[in-house]
């Protein structure tokens, strides 16, 4: 296990996100942001983590990393719990709140400025409801979801929403992402994955997928960085599900994972054969699929670190091309998919994680930020 570095921050961390680096840049990520929850005054905090190339080279030569302790740069108070964070660009950050509001922040040399806000964007019967999630399209456009079941499409340069999909869902939208430039993908508390095409003037989704008829809530979603039709979701039951959204009904692979709700799932942005998940049970897992072969549908059962059982079930039997991702066709041998724990002991919930280059960050209810080097991905 990599030498992780804990940082006690006196706040329960609800979300953590790396600040993006410039494209083509060889420099390691340096700044990140956190949001807190369950406090009298919740905060959005900006941090700096020194990962200079010289230190990184020394660490690799010694097969270990030095102390990676983040230093707080600045912070700003926010009403309500911070429910999600999303960078729109290197300069602009969007934060969502349990008050139903959405805030746009910009960091400068003097501190943080709030440059736009959408108050009570999410509400039901005149009462504000939490805004639960946000995603950026890669330009000025973002989408938010909430407990009111609506989707709000915003342009960060405008004060009014571009579009509101009022009846996107009859239950809570727990996570959202832009699948393509014109398609939005959501997961909800009814265990469904929905796709909306924002080019058409309708509130109906173009596709609805579900795991089974148990209606177990889905909490998080992430799309494969190179193959956007492949997405991963995490559920209330701790199950990791890999979907091929081109298919009509069933997910491709089900993996029994954590013993409690999975709060976030992330593909590595440049090495997507590696996947990371965190859970209410206090665990942080690295799913290493780099050794998996490309085969047809199969059944896998085995044990992860600490004897945690996992299994996979495939609902697709047609031939899979050699260009397919290994995540949608796991090798039947239990040794092909490795699951490693990145935290030494189970503690309070691990609420959020993010990866940039070869460093993973996670935030917990134990009021701690963990920095985890991932040298084996090189």
Description:
- The chain is mainly beta and 378 residues long.
- The protein has 1 helix and 32 strands.
- The strands form 8 sheets. A 6-stranded antiparallel sheet has the order 20-21-22-23-28-27, with no helix packed on it. Strands 1-32-31-30 form a 4-stranded antiparallel sheet, with no helix packed on it. A 4-stranded antiparallel sheet has the order 2-3-4-5, with no helix packed on it.
- A hairpin with a 2-residue loop joins strand 8 (102-108) and strand 9.
- Mean pLDDT is 86; it is low at 54-66 and 294-322.
Using the CA coordinates, give the radius of gyration: 20 Å
Largest sheet entry: 6 strands, antiparallel
| Shape, principal axes of CA atoms | globular
Q: Quick one: how many beta strands?
A: 32
Helix content: under 10%
Structural class: mainly beta
Question: What is the residue-averaged pLDDT?
Answer: 86
Number of helices: 1
Strand-residue fraction?
A: over 45%
Stretches with pLDDT under 50, minimum 5 residues = 54-66, 294-322
- CA distance, first residue to last residue: 15 Å
User: Which strand order spans the largest sheet, edge to edge or round the barrel?
Assistant: 20-21-22-23-28-27
Can you tag this structure with a few keywords?
single chain; 378 residues; mainly beta; four-stranded antiparallel beta sheet; 2% helix
Secondary structure: elements and pairs:
Layout: E1 5-8, E2 12-18, E3 31-37, E4 42-48, H1 53-61, E5 71-78, E6 82-87, E7 92-97, E8 102-108, E9 111-118, E10 123-124, E11 127-128, E12 131-136, E13 141-146, E14 151-155, E15 163-165, E16 173-178, E17 183-188, E18 192-197, E19 207-210, E20 218-223, E21 230-235, E22 240-244, E23 253-255, E24 262-267, E25 274-279, E26 284-288, E27 299-303, E28 309-314, E29 338-341, E30 350-356, E31 359-364, E32 368-373
Antiparallel strand pairs: 1-32, 2-3, 3-4, 4-5, 6-7, 7-8, 8-9, 10-11, 12-13, 13-14, 14-15, 16-17, 17-18, 18-19, 20-21, 21-22, 22-23, 23-28, 24-25, 25-26, 26-29, 27-28, 30-31, 31-32
